[in-house]
Amino acid sequence: xxxxxxxxxxxxxxxxxxxxxxQSAFVHPAYPITTEIYGQLLEQGFRRSGDDVYIPQCGGxxxxxxxxxxxxxxxxxxxxxxxxxxxxxxxxxxxxxxYDPAHYAMYLRYQNTRHNxxxxxxxxxxxxxxxxxxxxxxxxxxxFSIDGELAAIAVVDQFANAWSAVYTFFEPKFADYSLGVYAxxxxxxxxxxxxxxxxxxxxxxxxxxxxxxKMDYQPLQLLQNRVWTAAEAG
Length: 234
Known about the structure:
This protein is of the alpha+beta class. Helices cover 25% and strands 32% of the residues. The protein has six helices and 14 strands. Strands 8-9-10-11-12-7-13-14 form an eight-stranded mixed beta sheet, sandwiched between helices. Strands 1-4-6-5 form a four-stranded antiparallel beta sheet.
């Protein structure tokens, strides 16, 4: 356990649940975060957005539950096996986490197709880099290609004992390949091959469809009352 100065954000509408006021506790920007320190904070339920490290602190609501996969015990379910089969020829290359115009253009197409009402649909290059990148974290961009064409990017943070799935976006024309699912499955396997213990998935939110999917990856662990415990699907 480490002690770090935090500050509380002002209340704002929740991005995941209707009629909920959300707040987050942020690590003070003057505090010198490193990959190693952030790895310890991950274990305590924190996440990052760009260089900002935060944890939800919403009065009267505990819907956001940190989730991670114990990679050595993971076994894909039937639908995940179908996804792996469909992507058997999909190629993956790990790249540095730096700005690439082709990545950015695909990111905008993805946002405007999947999340056109969101603030990132008109993201500038600076917005894009500040959201996905970090000046202090060991981050990489994983390029997925189909038939030689760039199809998806997975943003991954790497630690001594774990990987953390930050974000995935894909070319809309390849939507049938379920590349969001495949990116998680690929990260699980790569983390296992590197003898990592966990893949962190961010927050599981039972009543939010776009966040509830994480229960599909078993064995899943949830951080509740400051203790990581096994969560059973269903």
